[in-house]
Amino acid sequence: MKDQTVKELILNEEELTRRCVKGDRRAQESLFNQFYPDLYLIAMRYLGDHHDAEDVIIQSFTRVFKSLSKFSHGGPGSLGRWVRTILINEAIRSLKKRKLIQFNEGIQHLNRSTSEANALQQMQASDILRMIEELPTGYRTVFNLYVVEGYSHKEVAKMLGISESTSKTQLKKARHHLMNTINEKKSYGTV
Amino acid sequence: MEPFDIDKIVREKLQERNNLHKPQMDSARPFVWGAVQQQIATQQSFTWYHLAAAVVVLIIVFSAILFGLQRRHNQQLDRLANRLDQIQQSNVAQIDALRTKDAQAEFLESKLDQMEQALAGLQMEEPTAPKEVIIYRTDTVYVKQVEYITIAADSTQSKELTTDVVEKPLERKEVAELQGTKTDDVIFISSSSQSEDPPSEAIKFKFGAFSREK
Description:
heterodimer, A: mainly alpha, Rna Polymerase Sigma Factor, Chain: A, 2 domains, globular, B: elongated
């Protein structure tokens, strides 16, 4: 019975939102369970540390429940996008607060080959995620925002308080770093 | 391989379901949910703390404003006092003259009071106008008669009254002896004629009738 109720709540985001705003503890738990796995992976992708990810998730959900009354439903998936945006902002705020984002300005050239692309295609999602998490913070943040979230360099620059050129450079370096990692894995035979 | 290809592959791969961090994720879930609940509860109760803090802040702000106003007021008072001192110091001669005039005015006023009091005392001592008083004076009528003769007539004897009957005074009194005496007794004035007629009302009078005169 409880599972059925939760399922109904998941299907109807508007109702879920309304109940959460009213302070319905079960609805809040349902919303938490619905978005927790995705948010955990995203937080890990940005922060690369479990404790930091948990802290950011706590802050994000707290902000979500606090601001949920201001959320206007814009169709299916809008709540998920809104929650995801909140988490990303919280993650960036956490990184900035602890001054963990460092941007190296040096430009490195990347020699691309089709074999790396094939290797990337053959890799599992978890391996790619792990590689992203192992990127330096600056590279990782820009890569996540630009490649995964789909923000433009202008938006990334604004979010991180850097120039567009820095954003572009960081992205190039992130890609280069990823390719190097893939090459290393290929050489070790792990891919 | 173009950068766009790498991005595309990564994006597609990340959309796949994966079990990376699943054990840590599941183990942290109760803790994270508990912490979120606690944060929500803290936020809900924070309203009261917020209100209390707002009240305290308001009190502090009002106190600061009042303190500022009082301080400014005191500064203005000090300025005025200093200004007054300066004026007094720069106009010593005029102030002395005014003080002398004040003293003179006070002296004259006190003198005027004294004079008014003295005048009031004099008016009190003046004799009052005599009232019109009616004085009743008692006059004494001296009857110029040497002697009063009281005739005692006996009714039984009157029938046989003869000329032989001699009137005999029963009592003789001096005038001085009668002075101041009031009496209702009928006094007949003696006459030389020894008439037997009863005394008329005309000659009958009372001393009392003369005792008063307006």
